[in-house]
Design goal:
The complex is a heterotrimer of chains A (218), B (245) and C (336). Chain A has 218 residues and is mainly α. Chain A has a single domain, classed as MetI-like fold, CATH 1.10.3720. Chain A has ten helices and no strands. In chain A, helix 1 packs parallel to helix 4, helix 7 runs antiparallel to helix 10 and helix 9 packs antiparallel against helix 10. The longest helix of chain A has 35 residues. Chain B is α/β, with parallel strands linked by helices and 245 residues long. In chain B, helix 6 links the parallel strand 7 and strand 8. The radius of gyration of chain B is 18 Å and the shape is globular. By secondary structure, chain C is of the alpha/beta class. Chain C folds into two domains: 151 residues, D-Maltodextrin-Binding Protein, domain 2 (3-Layer(aba) Sandwich), CATH 3.40.190; 126 residues, Periplasmic binding protein-like II (D-Maltodextrin-Binding Protein, domain 2), CATH 3.40.190.10. Chains in contact: A-B, A-C.
Amino acid sequence: MVTTTGLELIEVTLLSLYVSGMATILGSAIGIPLGALIGLKEFGGKGAVKTITYTLYGFPPVLSGLFVYYIFSRTGPLGDFGILFTPTAMIIAETFLVIPLVAGITITSVVEVDKNIKETVRAMGASSKQTILTVMREAWVGLVMACMVGFGRVIAEVGAAYLVGGNIDGKTRVLTTAIMLETRTGNFEWAMALGAVLLSVALCVFLFLRLIQEREML
Amino acid sequence: MKPTIELRGVTRRYKDVVAVRDASLTAMPGEILGIVGPSGAGKSTLLRLVDLLEPPNEGELFIEGEAMEFSSPKAAGARRRIGMVLQRPVALNRSVRNNLAYSLRIRGADEEEILGKVDQELKRLGLAERSLKNAKTLSGGEMQRLCFARATIFDPDILLLDEFAANLDPSNVSLLENQLKSFISTGSNKTVMIVTHNLFQARRLCDKVALMWDGRVIEVADKDKFFQNPDDQRTAEFVKGEVVY
Amino acid sequence: MKLNWTVAVAIIVVVALIGGAVGYVLCTKEDKVLRLATTTSTYDSGLLDYILPEFEEEFDCEIDVIAVGSGAAMTHGKNGDVDVLLVHSPAAETAFVNDGYGEARNLVMHNNFIVVGSVADVADTNHSANATTAFEKIYDNGTAGNVQFLSRGDKSGTHAMELSIWKNLGLNASLFSDWYVGTGLGMGDLLDMCEEEDATTPSYTLSDDATYYQRLSEDLIPHLEIVYNYQKTDGLLKNQYSCIVLNETRFPHINHTLATEFKNWMVSQEGQDLIASFEKYGQQLFYPNAVGYTPSTTSLKSSTSAVHSEGQSNVDAVISAAVELKVKVHIWCDRW
């Protein structure tokens, strides 16, 4: 419907959670190990890699959408999978936005772990792999923060979601694209209401993540 | 008898600073070797070289008679048999119990065994009631004792201590020294290398003492000889506290 | 509270698997789905929400509507991302068909462009003989510094129409000075901007009537009115909509059967009458003009009650929606 009804509100909210949630999970699954390796291992060009990662924080979401569009459009290389205009395409586009953000914050978090920890742990006989894992656990607060920031970025983005999703009623409409639609048609109050829903959803997710963040680890 | 630890002509450089210069040293099984010297003499670096935390630029290192290449799997294996307490050891951000368990876990011990050993250590440390609290809440002395326990809980044959009782009040110092004594008594061939600023401590604990100066090993002698009748002039001045740094 | 790593990892793996399964299900395009690309102005008018359910029910299918800018809709057509287009840019459409992307331009309906300005109508467009003259007056007043003209500037159908009128006068819009403002905004936003700007400088713009009425009904443009209306004399300001099925030879994957059925239905008596019966803001917004169409005498579905739920308490809406959703979920699960 052009104007979102009550039922559509629920559908749209659930889809927002699904798309952004999956993108955050996938993006973190890639970004956290990536960030830990970049942060803790020495290799040539490390400084350049870090700079590039941080630069990608400012990567325009709509650009990510464009890349995904070109790959999955019917005339594109992976067009035959028919992923365009489905939530899967939206997830892929948003995952690309999450990865650099999560990786970058992970880098900072693991690097900031007290140098003595790395030394101490190595002195205790930990192997390279064990050292990295232990440092990551010491950086737990920062890692959860990375996921939060990643989620925050994608739950609020509209450019990529609109471009590769198509804002199809009941299939690829999420909160942000619905807000865009309502604004475009002049229903500003309803747009604001949708915005409030989005913020509430984000609040719930962040509350949950905060609980995880502060748990006493084994 | 083969020495437990042997350094032959070891040099360690950082860019243009030479921390350890052509050092040769041995420690025999069952021996407690103290390493003393002024600040910046390279004592800590020497210890790190022995623990295979850093590679020497020149010279060779032997652990229990076998030559050690820095990044070889043999070296990794050796490191697992060595317990080390760093100058500033830190507690991991987890419970006291899990800090102790950590060195056992990374060696792949099974949980039952770990539970037993950890409980034992906790009792000895007097931290049994606080075993589930975050280790960062411990006082300085308690933390240090925890770190010492952490380094010995897996029963290593070699123990390296870098100023392990520095900055502590006398009662904690003596607690730690008792911990060391009980560790040594668990086996007849425990080798300990201990870096210390405290000459009284060296006298109390060590069998042999070595003086390091400006990266070199100046003199190694039995305790009595070292303090009363050393060969080198610098040693004599050092033990009298007459050297101006 | 302690966190057991094994359990945590297991939960995450399960969540990821469920997510993947849901994604797969939501991802597959079935035979009964038709993808239609159209413009935002068409979609925002509410016409499609009114007529498409009839088609979906009759042909037992779903229509996925992708509403984007006019240019983007054509691009989706050229890339074969959809099955059928409903657009209103005659020149672009002709090129589209000639270049082999689409089968043919099937005329469906038209609405009207209007010139919108403030009540004062400083340029006196109201007394123009035709659209060209109206624009000429705007041009004269603009260059004299009395008024300004706001343009879509986004290659939309409206923009194309506007440029063609300037062209009729032998003028090149890209050479206009500051009185001509190229914005890149959508139609609704442009009207809002016009309303704002009018407070300082008398502003004019070209708009489609549907968006104008919609903005008017929301009381967002109290100071603007239609200063020149096509109905006065010329057919120049006609906004013609066409339905184009994509070329099957070029895009073998498209749902050609359903797309053709849709196109046929749009130009059929039934579809055309339905379009005519769509009313909003007390007006008929679209005038069907498929080849050979004559209005039916039988009365049809009355005007839309559907769209705005403004009066309804939102809490009630959410509750009834939750119940609806529960039923929907049951039915969906039943499919398995």
